[in-house]
Write a structure and sequence with these properties.
alpha+beta; six-stranded mixed β-sheet; 20 strands; 34% helix; elongated
Length: 369
């Protein structure tokens, strides 16, 4: 690949919207590269301060993140428009493949060496020094190789987006079934149910259907390569060398940010933090059925029992006195099978998506200098 200076590939653009050629309807969002129409009056002098961003230009967006420690360049592959004057705009000097450049300038492993020498960190964002960035060296392949690399990543991104849409659709489908296959407040039958079932559902309190307690483990029980799952006060499942229980149970965190939002179904040996609740030894309902009903409805109950917008902790009675409605054992089995199959399909698509993202990450590391 040929070594070039940044300033030999891009030059800073000082083109402003002085003649109001571009209206507030043509304001572009640099962070997301999409149209972000402004509410400002078209004749407002402030609109003259906006920088013109042609298709193919790049703009520096200085917000730091986990992926972009020094901010990042964003390529305009949308349309001609304008952006706030706070963004530096750079225009290409030579012919380059748009799809390649979009990937290239977003590759942190490539750009961080340039940006660490050309940026200044402030409290809120990172600013770019043009005098420094234009001196920085980068390596670029021929236009023909750019086109092949750009096409490859464009197709890979399309595949990732397709799997993401499939995953989102499945999650929405599950959400819809959860809404329709359990009775609404006060109702005795759900809106949607399997053929052959017509009886009213039964209502009991949680404490009549299972035993409720908390764990005994502490945070220091966590071991990175432990043999048993260790359920703590977050969605992350840790590991432990010891297990406290060997049973089928439903778990929910007792305090922390995951209160009312984190649920686990477990069947086997596990360790449990002392601020995580477990429901076990079920009667009249299966553990898996209880898991689906409880995880759908418990947060709503918790929020109704507190005046706060966020919940600090769960009290025993919040679980013990919660009303649970349930059908016959056979109908429970059908409901559990439906949601278990959906969960398995969602997990499969999630693994495929994670694998594709890992593959892209690997290609990004190996296909750029």
């Amino acid at each position: 690949w040929e070594e070039r200076k940044f300033g030999e590939v891009w030059k800073k653009s000082s083109e402003r919207n002085l003649n109001l050629e571009y209206s507030p309807k043509q304001v572009l969002s640099v962070a997301q590269m999409k149209l972000n129409p402004s509410n400002r009056n078209e004749q407002d002098d402030y609109m003259k301060t906006y920088n013109v961003l042609h298709k193919g230009d790049i703009a520096f967006e200085g917000n730091k993140s986990k992926s972009f420690a020094f901010g990042r360049f964003v390529l305009n592959d949308l349309q001609d428009g304008i952006v706030s004057h706070v963004f530096n705009v750079y225009r290409p000097i030579c012919k380059m493949d748009t799809d390649f450049m979009k990937v290239y300038i977003n590759n942190e492993s490539v750009m961080k060496y340039l940006l660490v020498k050309a940026t200044t960190k402030t409290l809120m964002m990172t600013t770019l020094n043009t005098k420094d960035i234009v001196k920085q060296k980068l390596n670029l392949p021929s236009l023909e190789e750019q086109q092949k690399i750009g096409s490859f990543f464009k197709q890979l991104d399309k595949t990732i987006a397709l799997h993401q849409r499939k995953l989102d659709l499945l999650k929405e489908q599950k959400k819809g079934y959860l809404q329709k296959m359990f009775p609404k407040n006060g109702a005795k039958v759900p809106e949607l149910r399997f053929a052959g079932f017509a009886d009213d559902w039964e209502l009991r309190k949680s404490k009549e259907l299972c035993t409720i307690s908390t764990g005994k483990g502490n945070t220091q029980d966590k071991v990175d390569d432990g043999a048993y799952p260790f359920y703590v006060r977050s969605a992350t499942i840790e590991k432990s060398d010891e297990y406290l229980y060997d049973q089928e149970a439903v778990l929910t965190v007792g305090d922390g940010v995951g209160t009312g939002k984190v649920y686990h179904y477990v069947n086997g040996k596990y360790n449990l933090h002392q601020r995580v609740y477990r429901m076990y030894d079920f009667k009249d309902v299966s553990a898996k059925y209880f898991y689906y009903y409880f995880s759908k409805n418990f947060y709503k109950r918790v929020m109704s029992m507190t005046a706060k917008t966020s919940v600090d902790s769960v009290r025993m009675e919040m679980i013990a006195d919660m009303n649970i409605v349930f059908p016959s054992v056979k109908e429970q089995e059908n409901i559990v099978e439906l949601f278990s199959n959906l969960d398995n399909t969602i997990a499969l698509h999630q693994r495929k998506l994670d694998l594709l993202k890992e593959q892209k990450k690997g290609f990004l590391q190996k296909m750029f200098v």
